[in-house]
Design goal:
The protein folds into two domains: 2-122 and 304-336, Quinone Oxidoreductase, Chain A, domain 1, CATH 3.90.180; 126-272, 3-Layer(aba) Sandwich (Rossmann fold), CATH 3.40.50. Helix content is 27%, strand content 25%. It contains nine helices and 15 strands. The protein has helices spanning 40-48, 116-119, 123-134, 163-174, 189-195, 207-220, 237-246, 283-298, 317-325, and strands spanning 2-7, 14-19, 28-37, 62-70, 82-86, 99-103, 107-109, 155-158, 180-184, 199-202, 227-232, 247-255, 269-272, 306-310, 332-336. Helix 3 packs across helix 4.
Length: 341
């Protein structure tokens, strides 16, 4: 048996309980979860039944751990390997427990340069950014991974300090976008510029001032077409409204949460990305991504998000999710160690 943080039914509170350790199947590995990243969608699922999931439910999709058992057909790993990968919205594959399963195709060895905690900031947040840029419509903007889209293509990232936003910035940089503009807390300016941002705008700026500031940046960059590509890494109603207003005719707005935009026009495209590998439209791209991921990190192409470790293991997750709900995390990702007491 093992400890797990469980939602027993729709809209129920999290409870700390025991459940059996999953049995590994073909193409899978069983890992002792050393670190799991917390995401805003987790508190939204618990509070609003935000997504269709199986109950009793276990959450936690950004997982790093040690391989303790290997399923039939697995070739990339041996027992004792340090791995990280994407959880799934099913109890045996989620990270808010001491042991869980990972699919070989959607996991990778952790580079020696990363701790378990650092590695757990990457999987699904990176996949969400990746699919938003590189999947085809209606899920993504349809660019070719890590190839320039064309000369002087510019982009705006709403929420550049978020975990998803930081990966969008890095991928946009590698894909040749310039300028890359982001809204964020100004205390993150140095960090975001090191990732590839050219202009950081205060996220508290009123919408009219934001529009004026961006227009000035585009004029300096000799852009006459306005903002054609916006990635809203926050995707709350307020940010969606602002982003849609900023979007130029013929442009594309990428969201990470359900659309809350009124009065849409036919000359602006709004897409919604989803980073979980269990979606059929994500499978091929994400297999390739996980195959290349260790090299992308070792070469310095991608950098993990900064970490704040949650005290108390599984018992500390609920409080940390409350801090996420109250917007008390900026520029870092909460990470829990399930076996901590």
């Amino acid at each position: 048996m093992q400890n797990a943080l469980i939602i027993n039914q729709k809209l129920a509170d999290f409870t700390l309980e025991t459940r059996p350790i999953p049995q590994v199947a073909a193409g899978e590995v069983l890992v002792k979860v050393k670190a799991v990243g917390l995401n805003p969608i987790d508190w939204k699922i618990q509070k609003y039944a935000f997504a269709p999931i199986q109950y009793p439910a276990i959450l936690g999709s950004d997982i790093a751990g040690e391989v303790v058992a290997i399923g039939e057909g697995v070739r990339r790993y041996v027992v004792g390997d340090r791995v990280f990968g994407a959880g799934f919205p099913y109890p045996d594959y989620a990270g808010y427990q001491e042991y869980c399963k990972l699919k070989e195709d959607f996991s990778a060895k952790i580079p020696e340069s990363l701790t378990y905690e650092q590695a757990s900031t990457i999987p699904v947040t990176l996949a969400t950014a990746h699919q938003g840029l590189y999947n085809v419509a209606p899920y993504g903007m349809g660019f070719t991974p890590l190839l320039p889209p064309g000369k002087n293509q510019h982009a705006l990232v709403i929420g550049g300090g978020s975990s998803i936003g930081q990966f969008v910035i890095q991928l946009a940089r590698e894909s040749g976008f310039s300028p890359i503009i982001t809204t964020a807390s100004l205390k993150h300016t140095e960090r975001l510029k090191s990732l590839g941002v050219t202009h950081v705008i205060d996220r508290t700026l009123p919408p009219d001032n934001l529009k004026t500031t961006i227009a000035e940046i585009l004029v300096l960059g000799k852009s006459r077409d306005g903002l054609k590509y916006i990635f809203d890494a926050i995707s709350e109603q307020k940010t969606q409204t602002v982003a849609y207003d900023l979007l130029a005719p013929g442009g594309t707005l990428e969201l990470v949460l359900p659309k809350q935009i009124s009065n849409e026009s036919e000359d602006k495209r709004v897409l919604i990305t989803y980073g979980y590998p269990d979606a059929a439209h994500n499978t091929v791209n994400l297999k390739r991504l996980y195959g290349a991921l260790p090299s992308l990190i070792e070469e310095g192409t991608l950098k993990q998000t900064n970490v704040e470790v949650v005290s108390g293991g599984l018992g500390g997750i609920v409080e940390a999710l409350g801090r996420l709900e109250n917007n008390q995390a900026s520029g870092f990702k909460f990470v829990a160690r399930p076996s901590d007491k």
